[in-house]
Design brief:
Elements lengths: L8 H15 L4 H11 L5 H12 L17 E6 L7 E6 L8 H8 L9 E3 L2 E4 L8 H11 L8 E4 L17 H13 L2 H10 L5 E4 L14 H17 L1 H23 L1
Parallel strand pairs: 5-6
Antiparallel strand pairs: 1-2, 1-4, 3-4
Length: 263
C-alpha cells in the first residue's frame, strides 16, 4: 500500500482503524461455526471486498511503468506443492498476471482467521513458515542487483512481548512443550541477529518495539492501538541514535542515486 498504491502512513493508519473494526468483528457462535465449516473465524468476503475497493484491479506488473515505482514484493506460502509449504513471492518486476489486491489477499491469509486463497491452481496461506521476511528480501535484491553492495537494509517488526517470569515446578506440561515447539519454529529474531552479524556495519537496521502487553493479530480496539503507538514511541525515543544512523544512511544512499542520475 505504501510502495505501489501510494497511500500515506496517515491514510494506512486511518484505514486500519476504520476497516479493522469491520473485518475483525464477529459473533462468537457464528465464528465458531465458520471455523468448523470453512476454517476461518472472520468473514473472508468482507476482507476481499475492502481490498478490491481500495486497490482496484490494477496489475502488479503495470506499476513498473512508473519510473519512481520501487521493486516491491509480497510473500505468501503455497501449501499444495508437495508435503511442506513453499514460499511464494508476488512481485512487480516479472509476474504478469497477478493483481495488487490478490498479492495482499494471499499474503494475509492467516490460518484460522481467513480462508486460504486459491489462485492460478495454487493455494496460498500466510507466510508464517518463513521465520522473518528480511532474509528473502535480501536474497531477492541480490538476484536483482548481483554486483551492487548493500547500502541500507531496513527491517520493521510488528512488536514483541515477552513475559520473562520463571514458572514454578520441576517440569513442564505437554501443552507447554507443544507451545514451545511452535514458538521455536515461528521465531524470527535469530534470522535478524544473523543478518546483523553478516552484513557490513551501519547497513542493517532492525526496529522491533517491545510491547507492554500481548496484542493478538485481530486486535482493533482504539485503546489497544493507542497503547501500541505509545510503546512504539517509547522504543524510538530509547533508540534515537540508532534511528539517526539509519536516516543518515538512507540520506547518503539518496545522494548517491541523485549523483548517478546527474551523470
Amino acid at each position: 500500500m505504501l510502495g505501489l498504491a501510494r497511500f500515506s502512513l496517515e491514510e494506512c493508519g486511518d484505514m486500519y482503524r476504520h476497516f479493522g473494526s469491520d473485518v475483525f468483528r464477529q459473533i462468537p457462535l457464528v465464528g465458531t461455526v465458520k471455523m468448523g465449516w470453512c476454517h476461518s473465524y472472520y468473514s473472508t468476503e468482507t476482507w476481499e471486498m475492502i481490498l478490491r475497493e481500495k486497490m482496484g484491479d490494477k496489475m502488479l506488473i503495470k506499476t513498473a511503468r512508473d519510473e519512481l515505482s520501487p521493486k516491491v514484493s509480497a510473500v505468501s506460502a503455497v501449501v499444495n506443492w508437495g508435503n511442506s509449504p513453499k514460499a511464494f513471492i508476488f512481485r512487480n518486476y516479472n509476474h504478469i498476471w497477478d493483481q495488487m489486491w490478490e498479492a495482499v489477499r494471499a499474503s494475509s491469509a492467516a490460518p484460522g482467521y481467513f480462508q486460504e486463497f486459491p489462485l492460478h491452481g495454487d493455494i496460498h496461506q500466510y507466510h508464517c513458515i518463513l521465520n522473518g521476511l528480511c532474509a528473502p528480501a535480501v536474497h531477492e535484491s541480490r538476484l536483482l542487483w548481483p554486483n551492487q553492495p548493500y547500502k541500507c537494509v531496513l527491517s520493521l517488526g510488528t512488536g514483541c512481548y515477552d513475559n520473562a517470569t520463571r514458572s514454578p515446578g520441576t517440569s513442564t506440561s505437554l501443552w507447554a512443550r507443544i507451545n514451545h515447539m511452535i514458538s521455536i519454529n515461528l521465531e524470527t529474531e535469530w534470522v535478524y541477529n544473523l543478518l546483523d552479524d553478516l552484513l557490513a556495519p551501519n547497513v542493517y537496521f532492525r526496529f522491533n518495539p517491545m510491547l507492554s502487553t500481548e496484542v493478538p493479530l485481530d486486535e482493533s480496539s482504539v485503546r489497544a492501538m493507542e497503547q501500541l503507538q505509545n510503546d512504539t514511541q517509547l522504543y524510538l525515543d530509547r533508540n534515537k541514535s540508532k534511528m539517526e544512523s539509519c536516516v543518515m544512511t538512507e540520506s547518503k544512499t539518496k545522494i548517491q542515486k541523485i549523483t548517478l542520475y546527474d551523470f
